[in-house]
Each structure stands twice: as C-alpha cells, then as structure tokens.
Amino acid sequence: MQKLSIYNTLSRRKEVFEPLNPPFAGMYVCGPTVYGDAHLGHARPAITFDVVFRYLKEMGYKVRYVRNITDVGHLENDADQGEDKIAKKARLEELEPMEIVQYFTDAYHREMDKLNILKPSIEPRASGHIPEQIEMVENILDKGMAYISNGSVYFDVEKYNASNNYGKLSGRVIEDLMSTTRELDGQNEKRNPVDFALWKKADASHIMRWKSKWSDGFPGWHLECSVMSTKYLGEQFDIHGGGMDLLFPHHECEIAQSKVANGKDSVKYWMHNNMITINGQKMGKSLGNFIRLEEMFAGSHPLLEKAYSPVTVRFFILQAHYRSPLDFSNEALQASEKGLTRLFAAMQTLEKIQASETSTFDVQKLKTDCYEALNDDFNTPILIAHLFDGVRAINQAATGDLKLNATDLQALKDLYKTLVLAILGLEIPQSETTGTGELLNEVVNLLLNLRVDAKVNKDFATSDKIRNELTKLGFEIKDKKDGFEWSLKS
RNA sequence: GGUCACGUGGCCGAGCGGUUAGGCACCGGUCUGCAAAACCGGCUACAGCGGUUCGAAUCCGCUCGUGACCUCCA
C-alpha cells in the first residue's frame, strides 16, 4: 500500500508523511476561543483533524493529539479598545471570566460529542500555562529578539527576519507588510508596526490579568500555542493544524517565537482547512447567517428548512476536500442526507447477504482505491465516491446480480466498518426498529400482518389504507417477496 | 490598495495535460396489485477572452466574479 501524503502549507505541495519519532506521531491543532457558542465554523477544523487523528491511529501510530482551549483574552478587533472578548462578555453578563470560559467550554464539548469527534489526548488551556508563557517571554528576551516597552513585551520581527524568514508560511514579504500597514494613531509602543505582543500590560478595566516582572497583564495571543505545543509535544513535532484564517499572523508568529525559543523549526507539516460559507456568503454575525451548531441540529435558524442531524453535517463536510471552500445550503445538505441514508442502508443490507461459491466483484480493488484516496492528503470525497461504488455492488449482491464468496464478503464488511465507522467517524443512527419499544414493534407488525392478509385477499383498498396511514405517521414500509420491512424515519 | 486561494453539468462536489468521478434532482426502463427500495439506461459541464501543446477543465496571460488574510494582540 502506498504511503500517506499530506499537503504541507509550508512547502505548498504534498509530502510523504514520515513522523519524526515513529511509531509516535504528534499533532497540535488550534482550538476554539471560548467566548461564544460553537458554530458551523468550529465544525470544519474539528472534523478535519478528527479524521486525521483517527486515520493515523488506524495506521498504527501512537498519536498524541493536542487541541487547546483559548481562554485568555484577545482583544476585539472592531470593538472598544483595550477590552478582550472574554472580559467584555463577563462584564456584560456580570460573571467571573472563568464562568464564561467554563460555560462555553462545556457547550463546545457537547456539540463536538454530537459530531462524534474524539476527544484529543490533551486539551490544555492558555490560562493554565501562564508561568510557562512568562518563561518563554523571558527566553525570547534573553535571546535578544524581543524588547520591553511600557510594561509590554514585543517580538522584534525585523531583527528576527534578518537571520530568518518571517512570512515563509503565509508567503508574505516583510517589506510589503511594513509598507502596507495603515497609519495608526494611539499607542506607539512598538518599534515597528509588524512587531507583535508577547506580553501585554493590562489597563485598569482589564479583568483578566496576571502578575509578571514587566507588568500586571496577559500573554500575547500567539504565545500559548508555541508554549503548549512545546510542552506536550516537544521542541519538534509532526503536524500542526488549524483554519486558513489562522495562517497569518497567528501561525507565522508561532513559527518565529518557537524558532527563537527552541533554536529550531518546531513543526514538520503545517495543515490548514478551508473556510465555510452559507449560501455563498461568508458567515458573519452581522450578516444574519451565523448558524450555531445547536441551531443546526434543531433546525431552529431562519435559514434552515429543517433540522440536520450531526452525522449529516459531518458527512456533508467530509464530502468536500478539507482544503476547498465549502458552501452550506439546504439543497446541498438534503442531498447529503439522502446519500448518507443510502450508504447506511447498504451497510445494513451487507450484514444480510449470503456468501456465494465464487466472486464476481473485486473487493481488493475497491479497498485499494479507498486507501489511495485517503492516502492522497485525506481525500475523503474521493473515498466516499468509492464507497458509493461499493454500495451499488452490495445492493446487486443482495438481489443476486453479483456474487461474493465468504472471504470477499467478510473483507467487504470489515472494509466498511473500518472506513465508515472508525475513520470517517460516521455513526449509524439507532432509531430504526430497535429502541422504539417492544410494544410498538408488535403493534406495527400486527398491522402489517393484517395488510398481508388483505393483499392475499386482493383487498387493496385496505392494504393501501394501512400503508398510507403508517406512512403518514412517519413509517416507511417496504414489501418483500416473503413479507415486509419497516422503519421509523427520523 | 497588497498577498493568497477559488470559479466545473439543475444543485453540491472530485479532478491538477489525453480515459466514466461520486452524491442529490430530473427523464426512461426492470421489479411490484400499486407503491417504496433496489437495479439498468439517459441528461455529460468545466466564468469569459487570448496563448502554449499533437492534445487543456487541467499549464501561461488578461478580464470579470467570490472568499481568506493584511498585526488598534481573533
């Protein structure tokens, strides 16, 4: 089987994945800033890297997956000066900042669980790593790559760039950055507008603050990721992921900080997922198209025609490649929902197929195709396309138009279990006939048996009536040669 | 304004120089008392204009459109 290749943003090409210390693999992904509800934008990176995590484990690597919770500050870019998102929310709601953080962290976890996203190995919080962050600031100051200004500490980008390449990840050129920066009035603490904060002095109104030798303040946003990735994955690790919106400045700054602090480049493969749009528009609070995951699953947003289950959302996201933009619309979601139902139905059919003496279908070819897709930079849409080729084969096998011997049948079952359940993380909803109660089963069976009798007597008026009424109630009735099948639709 | 992506059939979405993507929808057909499901078949596109090439959705240029970022610390 050929090797896994990953598109590395750093080199802008696909590279064969070779971990630094096999069989171990380290992965760090930028998690949410917990100052608001989990929304659609959170789902994409979570699902993208969940599949990476699952596949690496499936390949046999011992993976440590670190995804942080940003619970320290970060100024609003468009709101009141000097106020950060969490502090502002806390003041408005008259709560402790950590109450806000706890509330939204719990909410985030709840939605991630619904999406069947595996928990990371470690989920560190920025607020729990203040001493380490202060240490890294000192380290960078000692190396002469930062300076103190009015109680804040800034990274000296120009100096760093003299011996390093600042902008190598995002493709920016420092001269351009300096020349395109707008003229800003206000605090001119920085030597150069391209410099970024490592430690920021808190003003009087700032309620999230920690003591340091420079000032009472808080760490610069970019710092937490450098610190926590180093702490839990080492000075060098394999994969760093996040959304494309984080490419610049966040990840660029991380590279610079870590390089200075650790004396070497810390990340081998940089992965970035693309963004989500809603009906072709970017998602934004002011545009009225900001959909929270809770609303998505309940169908309670005005733009939604119906509720979409978490597994549908997950499948929908996986039907596009993670590096392509993805547009959410009712039409597209419903198409995915139907396709997914068909996929799951085939998997249930697969369990009932009887083995033949011979095979007329190449299961190994299907398997190879599937893994080739996965190995080609996690190309889940291609993988899913192959899975649908298999669906056709399964259905043909069920009707006897295609044959599978015992070995191939088992191989096919294993393949779908591994790919669909373990790697793509798609869970078959348990609504079916099970879990609805024994009594209900018996009542429905009774009605359908009466219907069979009516059909035998050619009393089609009665048989149609039973079926139509049940359909109205949300049941799906399928006649079989030797009886019937029914299910309760969600 | 700058940098970087992207623009594919009714809708979504793969593709990265030559071969059917796939899903959904739609139209025929098989099966069925009629349905549903399933299967078979059909519809077969690549924003526009140039260029490179024996050959381009795929490479290059321009135009138009969309998106991300451009540090008053997401």
Salient structural properties:
490 residues; alpha/beta; Rossmann fold; Four Helix Bundle (Hemerythrin (Met), subunit A); 4-stranded parallel beta sheet; RNA-binding
Short description:
The protein is an alpha/beta fold.
List strands and helices in order, with pairings.
Blueprint: E1 5-8, E2 13-16, E3 24-29, H1 40-58, E4 62-67, H2 85-93, H3 97-114, H4 130-142, E5 146-149, E6 152-155, H5 157-163, H6 174-180, E7 196-201, E8 217-219, H7 223-233, E9 237-243, H8 247-262, E10 267-273, E11 276-278, E12 281-282, H9 293-298, H10 310-318, E13 326-328, H11 330-352, H12 363-375, H13 380-399, H14 406-423, H15 438-456, H16 460-472, E14 475-480, E15 483-488
Parallel strand pairs: 3-4, 3-9, 9-10, 11-13
Antiparallel strand pairs: 1-2, 5-6, 6-7, 7-8, 11-12, 14-15
The chain binds one RNA strand of 74 nucleotides through α6, β7, α8, β12 and α11.
